[in-house]
């Protein structure tokens, strides 16, 4: 990761040196602080705006170097469009758009977080700061020659960035929470971006164990421990790999009542998915390093909750394996006995995620008796066919839970789209030889995968998020160009904050 900028919250004073960022709207109006700062430059901005056809549209940036009359190196004007219509996610994106246009040499940057219309709330200002943090993230650890930022002006420089806000105390407080979430997202991104020779199950478990520093209780189950518990489905997936499998339990007990039933979040952590004996084609197989994005999200979320000391009990469980072809691999035709006691006929060793999850889910449900379970998994290529990379697939046995996740998706922009579950699809995974098969054929591939999982959660309110489209191989957005987007951390943080911290 590149050297990150230092972001702090400051008082709304107008600096006279360095780089100044001000906000404008579709009327090219400014807040009082910006107006005062720009006054010595006369009508410079209006003239440049006209020449450049800058009209204050949202996330459009006008950058003036050495603006005459001012002692600034750069004056940067960021458009908000109709600023009154801006929602939390829009302020986040605006922060990202600003960070993306900071000049490469900028060291001393002040963002005046004030709207033309007047006061900007603490949460909104903190979202701008979070957007800056996320946009500044770069995964360039393995580039020995060119570090991003040195040769490309669109890359955010390492700098001191002050977000100057009207409500300084409120914004500082909001930033503590937002920065915690930001660090959780960065952790999730790192985990997804890391190559599979570096991030294998034992190393992933070691990195998750570092959450101890934040007060998260960690348990790491090794293969003998999982064997003893009867997790033969999860273990079968990892048995062809030289790398040992692990199951990690992360507990954050922030509720007043320590005994209160937790919210449980379970993640698929296939550190590399070759498909196993049902081997995948070579094209794009390297992307399968991201097949642990569900587990990365769970780990990033636990980081976020602990770092902001969330007042709630949450347990995160991740199943970590590597799916490899080998003389000792599991085979199509094998019948596995899962932790729950149900038996599974393996049809395709590339449908491995559900085998990892079924043991993690059943174990989590039985041991923690959670009030609800949400799992995240890069589970099926079929969800990419159905929804592309914009929405994650949401499957749930509980309407209220589904609605709350959908709502949190709208607030954060991490969108989910509900898909069906029904007895018809469940039948498709009945097996001739065992209780079920691990695939249901070509049709409705994401649904039959979800039906499989549903057989392991009993009556507990449960939601499954298929993040094969959203969790990895992300395209560029205002909040970054990281291949691993850290998808789901903001979604689940919002879901928990909105409903389970009262
Ligand atoms: N990890 C893959 C799903 C995947 C595909 C994730 C593309 C991200 C991008 C999963 O383990 C898998 O291989 N699923 C199979 C299931 C099939 C064999 C029933 C698939 O989707 O083809
Ligand atoms: Mn697979
Ligand atoms: Zn997989």
CATH H-level superfamily of the largest domain:
Zn peptidases
CATH class of the largest domain: Alpha Beta
Bound molecules: ligand BES, manganese (II) ion, zinc ion
Indicate the low-confidence ranges by residue numbers: none
- Tally the structural domains: 2
* Shape annotation: elongated
Hey, roughly how much beta strand do the residues contain?
15-25%
Question: Please, what is the average pLDDT?
Answer: 96
Query: Helix amount, in percent?
Result: 25-40%
What is the count of β-strands?
Answer: 17
CATH topology annotation of the largest domain: Aminopeptidase
Q: How would you write the strand order of the largest sheet?
A: 7-8-10-9-13-17-14-15
Q: How far apart lie the N and C ends?
A: 36 Å
> From the alpha-carbon coordinates, what is the Rg to the nearest angstrom?
24 Å
Q: Can you tell me about this structure?
A:
This protein has 502 residues and is an alpha/beta fold. It has two domains: 6-168, 3-Layer(aba) Sandwich (Leucine Aminopeptidase, subunit E, domain 1); 182-499, Zn peptidases (Aminopeptidase). The protein contains 15 helices and 17 strands. It has helices spanning 32-38, 44-52, 88-100, 122-136, 168-193, 201-209, 223-229, 232-238, 293-307, 353-368, 381-387, 399-412, 423-427, 445-454, 489-499; strands at 6-11, 19-24, 61-65, 74-79, 108-113, 160-165, 217-221, 246-253, 263-273, 313-323, 335-337, 343-345, 372-377, 391-396, 415-418, 436-437, 462-466. The longest helix is centred in the middle third of the chain and has 26 residues, at 168-193. The mean pLDDT is 96.
